[in-house]
Specification:
The chain is mostly helical and 99 residues long. It is built from five helices and two strands. Helices cover 38% and strands 6% of the residues. A two-stranded antiparallel ribbon has the order 1-2. The radius of gyration is 23 Å and the shape is elongated. The relative contact order is 0.15. The mean pLDDT is 88.
Length: 99
Amino acid sequence: MATASKKPAAKKAPAKKRTVNAAFMKPMKPSATLAAVVGSKPMPRTEVTKKLWDYIKANKLQDSKNRRNINADSKLRPIFGKAQVSMFEMAKLVSGHLS
């Protein structure tokens, strides 16, 4: 009686962890106008965005009708260049103030 030889079960490769883009984690120096809101020490873009949102929420600057819009106060107006921006537009405008 011949025995059938079984192949060992193929092991699944462990799920790859998502790698963080190094460009997002590189500390960037904010301009003087942006530093008035987020602080002057170099920090990653992600941290700048987080601090901006903390400031926006603390000062209730989100538009009450359309929460995707941000109403600029006296500190944000020089950064945005206008009275109101969308949250998607904000990232583009802020990147001009990072070096």
